[in-house]
Known about the structure:
Blueprint lengths: L2 E12 L2 E12 L3 E5 L6 H8 L7 E6 L2 E2 L5 H7 L1 E4 L11 H7 L6 H14 L1 H5 L10 H13 L5 E5 L7 H16 L3 E6 L2 H7 L2 E6 L2 E7 H6 L1 H7 L3
Parallel strand pairs: 3-8, 3-9, 6-7, 7-8
Antiparallel strand pairs: 1-2, 1-4, 4-5, 9-10
Helix pairs in contact: 3-6
Bound molecules: adenosine-5'-triphosphate (ATP) and magnesium ion.
Amino acid sequence: MSALLRLDGLEAGYGDLTAVSGVSLEVRRGEAVALIGSNGAGKTTTLRAICGLLPVRAGRIEFEGARLDGLGSSQIVARGIAHVPEGRQLFPTMTVRDNLELGGRAADRRRRDDALELVFTLFPRLRERERQLAGTLSGGEQQMCAIGRGLMARPRLLLLDEPSLGLAPMTVKLIFDTLQRVNGDGTTIMLVEQNVPRALQLSHRGYVLENGRIVLEGTRESLRASPHVKQAYLGL
Ligand SMILES: Nc1ncnc2c1ncn2[C@@H]1O[C@H](COP(=O)(O)OP(=O)(O)OP(=O)(O)O)[C@@H](O)[C@H]1O
Ligand SMILES: [Mg+2]
């Protein structure tokens, strides 16, 4: 299987702080890959560097064999990468539909309507709430809307930052079931999560990030069997 996304020795940070360094990983076409780690490990920083929201200080990022680091975030979106950020980042005073349409990169109406139909099929709740202001949605509905906005661009790679955060278990299940379907339909997924049981349920493989470095990687089965993962992330 060929790598869709490859990070090689990524370093990124804020001011004097080096938040991640020497991060190397790959996401193959069709896979769902988890990046797990506790608070402050550098998960969000890694995703932000991939999306061009944070400069890459060292190392390189490749997508479909072409260099990604150094490009602006809109060029990266145009290459086929969508980012569902931590905290959802919707426009609260705009409707659900308007928020979704902001995610569409196709200028022509027909492709945008097709993408909208796909999102409404995946999340029927969003169709019911189409004209409601995003700020009045429940947390789970807001997460659906944020994922839907990402899918509007029909990405080849969907990056998700803590989609389960703050949501009730039933809502988390619904969202992860939908992500499984999205992945099964051919969209490659890279998922950042603190909810490790859920993340490993969805993902084929995963990486464990601690203090800005990858300390462990493996298949879902090998991570579940790892004494370190069991103790530190699965509470076993
Ligand atoms: N805007 C910022 N300015 C300065 N330091 C930051 C900023 N954002 C994050 N950091 C620091 O960078 C490190 C990595 O943070 P990051 O947000 O990537 O972690 P995370 O793994 O996503 O954590 P969480 O699970 O809490 O979301 C932390 O030490 C954090 O304090
Ligand atoms: Mg984070």
